Every structure is written in C-alpha cells, then in structure tokens.
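Q: Protein A?
A:
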Amino acid sequence: MSRAQEEVAIIDRRTGNPVMAILHKELDEFELIDVEIVWAPARLQALRELRLNGIPATDLPQHVHWNWAVKAVQNSNLLAFQSFGIEADGIMQGLMTVCLAGNVSRLDPDKGKPLVYVEFVETAPWNSKEFAVTPTYKGVGLRLIQAAVRLSLDEGFSGRIGLHALPQSKHFYTNACEMQALGPDERYGYLAYFELTAVKAVEFLKKGSIQK
C-alpha cells in the first residue's frame, strides 16, 4: 500500500462517532485494481436490489458503470495523474483520481491560473446513499476533496480545484464543498462544471468537523 499516508477523521454512521481512517496519497495501478475487485460485487449486488425494488433505470446511481480497474489501466503511464484512497477497517472506503496538468481556472480573479482537476471521486458502494439503505461511513468524499485542495497548495496552485459533477452529486459540491457552479459544459457532455477558488479553498480546509 502507498507509503504516503496521513490520518483523517470520518464518521461511523452506526455509532455517530468520528473514527480515524488512513488517507493514501499515491495509490498505484494495482492497488486501484484490487479495490475494484472488492467494490464490483458490492456495486452489482446493490444494483440488483435496486432493480428488484422497482427503481427505474433512469433513477439508478449515475456512476453505476464506473470501473476503477479500467481507469487505472488507462492512466497507468500518465505522470499527470495521481490517485488517493481512504481506508478504514482494512478496506478502501473511497477513491479519487486527479490530474495535475492542462487545466486552468475559469473564475476571476484566478482565471487562467492552473488548478488541480478532479477526474473521478467515489465513495465505496456501502457508503453511498444511492446504493445503500444504511450507509456505513460519512465524510469520505469531503476528506478526499480536501486532499485535492491540499495537493493544489503543494503544487503551488493556491488550493484551486475544478471538476465536472454528475447531476446526483451537484448538491454535495454546492453545499458540503462550497464550490461555485459555472453551469453545464457542452464540451463535457453538458455536465455541470464546478470550481473552488483560492480564497474559498482556505475556508474549505477549515472544515475539520463533519456534521453527523
């Protein structure tokens, strides 16, 4: 497992109490493949339950088709990409891949300055409200986005990050992450584009606690 690690706090929904988890900052291709080996059966079982319960295809989780093994292979030789994970109970509870090159801010006063672009971020199926009736952990996504902001600071990008959000995730990025929505992006399948400015990044990193 990646040697670049630090402790982060997430919430155990079963008790309502914070627990310490491990943030892995440099996951490699095979570590991502190993996570998908664990996640895929849980994702498919959850999909089966949703369909048995009559959930129409249009209302299924919009990331149901994601496959981290495929993403890992596609990015394996690209130095601009870096992958993170949050581990608790000996299992990866969330993943994120970011790109460090080729993306710039669209918002003033940072317009044209480089940022960290969040390619993909996902909590494990058993933590997702879209998949699980009683999710296990809360705050995994928040901690991963904060990790992207800290990476942006380390890279000299002043905390700026950007991403395109699935419709089901827009509330999370608007409210929990306090990112600014710039509207649908026709160059990216009309997904809504979000940014966190340098000023907002400082405030966002102060969110040490997670609401139960």
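Q: Protein B?
A:
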Amino acid sequence: MKLLSQYRPRLYRPPFRLLDFMRQVNNENLINLAAGVPAASLLPVEDLSKCYRRVVKVSDGACYAYELPEGDPGLRTELAQRLENRNVTLPQKEGDVLLTIGCTQALRLALELTVKPGDLVACESPCYYNLLEQIESLGAKALPIPTDINDGVTPEALEPLLNRYGPKSLVVCSSLSNPTGATIPLENRSRLVELCRKYDVNLIEDDIYAELRDEGALPPLRSFDDGSQVLYVSSYCKSVAPGLRVGVFLPGPFWEEAAQKRCMEIMHGSTLAEGILREYLKSKLIDKHLEEMKKICYRRRSIVRNAVEAYFPKNTLVSNPQGGFLLWAVLPTWICLEEAAQASLSKGVSFARGEVFLTGKPKQACMRLNCAKASEDELAKGIEILGKILKQRS
C-alpha cells in the first residue's frame, strides 16, 4: 500500500523546459553538464561530409526535391535491416518504418496516437523531462513508476500500479535510460511486454541510446512483440548526427494515422538529411564509429565519476551505467539545487537539476550530468567547481 500511495497520477508543471536546455547547448562560455547531447568532436563529421557529396552527386537534383511523406525508402530499408539484426520482426520491411524529425517527433506521434486528455501515462521515475512536458501538453496525467538505478522499470514495481490505475500507455527508455542510465535486463523485457498485453496498455519504447551500450545493443522490447502492443521510437541523434534530425518510428497498427499526422504537420522530412544518413548506413562505417564513441564515452564517464567521488559531498551516490554519456548523482542530504545552479552558472558551469525529471519534489537532491558535451579537461574542472558549491551548501 505504501508503494501505491507514493506513486500516484500527477499533473506536471515543468520547472525547466526542453526549450531552456536547448538554448544553452552552444553557449561557448559554459562548461555544459546539463544538455544531454554529444559534442561535435564526437561525431563522424568527415564521413558524413563524404556521404553528403555522394548524395548530391548521384541524386541528380532529387535530394532537393519533395520526398514521400513516410520518408526515404532506401533509408527505411537500411533501418529495417538493422532492427531485424536485433531480432525485431518486420513483415513489411521498410513498410513498417516511418521516418520522423528526430526521436522527439516520433515520441510525440506515439503519444498523440494513444493518449487523450484525461488519460494516464505511466513513465519511469525519474524520466526524460520532455516526456513529462509532452504528457502535460496533451492534457494527460503522468503515473510515475519506481525505477531501479541499474535495471530500470521492473515487472515487480510495474504490475501493481498497472493493476490499480489502468494507464492508457507506458513509456520506457529501455537501454541507458535518460537520466539514470538504467538498462532493463534481457530477462525482464519479455515480462514487461506481457504485462502491458495483460492490462491492455500501449507500450511506447524509446530506444535512442541502445547502440551506445558498451557490450552492444540488446534486443529491444519490440523484439518480443509483433508490433500490436509496442510502439517503437528512436533516432541516431545521440550517436551519429543530431543536426540531421532523422528519427525512427514503428507505429504498428497506427501506421496510416501516423503517416497522415506527419504529412499534415510537415509534409515530409529533409530529403537531403535522410539521404545522408542512408548513405552513411549503407557504407557500414557506423559500426566502427559506434565502437570508437563508446570508448570515448567510457573514458569520460570515468573522469566524471572519479571527480564526483573526489569533490562532491561525501557519500554522494553516482550511477554506473552500461554505456552512454549520462550519469545520475544523488546527494546524501537535501540541498537547494536551484540556488546551487545559479551559483554554478555564475562560474560558467551548468547541470540538470533532478526535479525536472520527476513529477514531485525528491527527498534527496539529485542531478543529471552529461559527460559528452564538455572536453575531458572541462569535465574535471566543471565537477570540481560544482562540488565546491555543493559542499558549501550541505
């Protein structure tokens, strides 16, 4: 009963918005530990430039013309193949893959297709702050699900809340979840899908970080479903090219409605951007890039973890995810992070306060730290500055 009373549906009022984070992204005067984005130096810029030139050369001008509302067929074929390599069944191949403007539009479409005003949407707690914004903007309530810092949403935590509240949809970032970095173990994935089928809950899977897992991407939740229960969203914005803004959506039975919504909103995506990503995937250079990026992220996570242990208040808990570039830190006592954030900004350091990822005020001060935007020297310096500020207030 304690669990059920603690985790109940809530209206969300964002203390900080996606818009605010994105306005800080390219501020050269900041050591940016806040926005969950990679630095341009981590991206395969030279290879993407070669792909751009190839697209322009072979397209005979078509890369500047209109495209199908569903997106570039060749790119959808490449994406379908990569998903099938991870045990996802796609009977229609590229016909099951809808392209979007980044993962954000895919997530928005998935929510619009499954949620109405007044509905409940279950989500991880903590979870990606823009998901909470999206739920609020649709007139729905968020139902927070307790989330293990290592294993994410577990069947044991999920079932009693599904049984009591009957949410319309459940949104889960299955691998390297933002913000905790949690990855749902393989043995729990099929059980979560079964629970959503049992309680007739649409499962929206955000798989955007999966290929940054150190030991390789796990089969997604979608691999345990035929597409009728799991709506899959992803992109290569965190690992290859955020600026291309190409997302992936498997809408399953909502295909025609999703394509119609996308066409009405934007007609189609960037023909040129989709062509560049198509050529990049066809070149097979992505796997080498991902291996290199994973090594860089591992080193940077280690730098930040070591710095947190050295400079943050004693007994601070910091996550140790299986990959990616996000860390979650929980301080041993309550500290007003709004004041700490202002003080750190005055010294040129930004971080993401934990309350933006939660539907209610946390019992302990917590924060997300991005290891991929600042340089390695800046990471160590930024954590030292932030640590001193936190110690002054603890």
